[in-house]
Amino acid sequence: MREKGSHRRADLDAVLAAGFLCHLGVDVDGTTMVVPTAYGVEGDRLYLHGSVASRTLVRAPDTTVCVTVTHVDGLVLARSVFEHGVNYRCAMIYGVPRLVTDPDEKLRGLRALTEQSSPGQWEYVRQPSRKELAATALLALDLTEASVKTRSGPPDDGDSEDAALGLWAGVLPVVTTFGEPVTDPVLPPDVTPPAHVASRAGRVLGE
Amino acid sequence: MREKGSHRRADLDAVLAAGFLCHLGVDVDGTTMVVPTAYGVEGDRLYLHGSVASRTLVRAPDTTVCVTVTHVDGLVLARSVFEHGVNYRCAMIYGVPRLVTDPDEKLRGLRALTEQSSPGQWEYVRQPSRKELAATALLALDLTEASVKTRSGPPDDGDSEDAALGLWAGVLPVVTTFGEPVTDPVLPPDVTPPAHVASRAGRVLGE
């Protein structure tokens, strides 16, 4: 079995740690919406920016949402169309999110969110003012109800009848990396990226 | 405005053409689920593998789903936490999917799906048998109700008060590429990847 399911917390943590963007599914007046948004992890909680979901929550505070984080690792190229697939790591979290209102928690949540995608930025840039904090819609979601699914490795038809076809089969890896930082064109050319940004160029996301 | 919305078909086509994986949001017995799945485009239709959604559709055939395709292009690193963001291209498609039952359409849909992620594979590998076709759950979704959102370019605070802080600001690009094909270890070492696979190594997804 190259496809695996897991409910272990360590597996969930690993998938969440490897990214910064999730797809948030929420019911808005009877219509399902799936919106990409940034997330951060702090302890047993996921924090997320979610203007769509927070608008819903104000009207329907007991709405269960689904947050899905997916990393694509490769195309599984088999000997038959039927056996084609994708190598991936995917976490799904279900729960009723809570709109964060406490300013201290909002600050902690925003810090987790900022550091998830851009470690080092929280200390480097100007932190939120009271007014900015108030204008930010932040959601907290417990990591209690979650599952992880992954697929890895070669195609499954290596010992099937199709192996006799003599075709090539294997995996075409998909790799997500950071490029060279692009400086804001309004800055003078001698302003160079700080080390915590410059050092990420060429690195694989989540490593 | 570096954030843009569009309902133009050409913008939708461009986002869809640049990927092969979507997040499908569907209501399953009152709970929203967001599932990553492969898609293909043929004419005015999106085809997708969707076992979860198809199980729902059998019970509730008029279920509206949301399909979201997101490409992350970079981290927007501003002078303040508040102005941080992500450069992205995102398409959202709403509609009531149709369970494809006609064998000819199923074959066309599977071809679109296979060629979307792996151009050249449909002709190279063994195509589906009648039995395999019957075992595949394929959904068709019209591209009529769709919207595209994108963000590109530098942070928005280049002419704000924060510019005086003298901090570096800009974009850290995120790039998704194909790696070198990994041959199934059960194959003899002289079986090399066909040109349509080997030629993708090092190429950016969607280019």
From TrEMBL, chains A, B:
InterPro entries: Pyridox_Oxase-rel, Split_barrel_FMN-bd. Residues 185-207 are annotated as: Disordered. It holds the Pfam family Pyridox_ox_2. This is Pyridoxamine 5'-phosphate oxidase family protein. The lineage of its organism: Bacteria, Bacillati, Actinomycetota, Actinomycetes, Kitasatosporales.
